[in-house]
Amino acid sequence: MPKKPDSLAINMKNDAKTAPLIGITLDYEEGGSYSKMPWYALRENYCSAVSRFGALPLPLPHEVERAEAYLDLLDGVVITGGAFDVSPALYGASARHETVKTKNRRTDFEFALTRGALARKLPILGICGGQQLLNVVLGGTLIQHIPDNIPNALEHEQKTPRTEPGHAVAIAHGTLLHRILGNATIEVNSAHHQAVANPAPKAVVNAIAPDGVIEGIELPESDHPFCLGVQWHPEYFVTQADEKIMQAFIKACER
Known about the structure:
The protein is of the alpha/beta class. Helix content is about 30%, strand content about 20%. The protein has helices at about 5-15, 45-50, 65-75, 105-120, 130-135, 145-150, 175-180, 240-255; strands at about 20-25, 25-30, 40, 55-60, 75-80, 125, 140-145, 165-170, 185-190, 195, 205-210, 215-220, 225-230. The longest helix is centred in the middle third of the chain and has 17 residues, at about 105-120. The protein is globular, with a radius of gyration of 18 Å. The two termini are about 35 Å apart.
């Protein structure tokens, strides 16, 4: 009898894998631009940033019921960003800002994947919206629209290309992020209208913008070996700090 696909894949991982396998969450559209039918999407630099440090990127379709089967194969997870928001209902908000756009199937899958990775203590890197989702999964809340909540806020949706820095962030001493970077301040790109409001109970804030917006969170290494969220997009490699983040994540996935 032929082996089931999951069994075959697991055996391939055990017998032939020489590099960590990194799951990367996809975006999803209903159709009407690239195709009339629904379609998945992922910027190439998410994959090339993972490949650059010797890992194998594996984009993950939104099969909620298969999240645990995916996790059986993976050595680490990247929760990506996108032009959408986590449903405010998931963090107990009674109101919903007019700018909020949700993708419930994607969020359901990313919740299941993130919860499973946390339970297994697989390395996790949340990027931009992925950092926001990580905070909500851990029990935190979000600012639904920065311009309406932060007086004199910076331009967090920068008009310049994402390959250029948009503003600085201060890195908190004693955090995993600071140990990775060795810097007190770095320059980052910026492409978000939401941010962490109340950090999750166990989450540590590791980066803050000059206007007070939280730019990064993590779990203490006593709770999880590598669980890091950043509000910017290190996959663009805007500065050397971004390279250090991606390299540290891949190294954690090799353990």
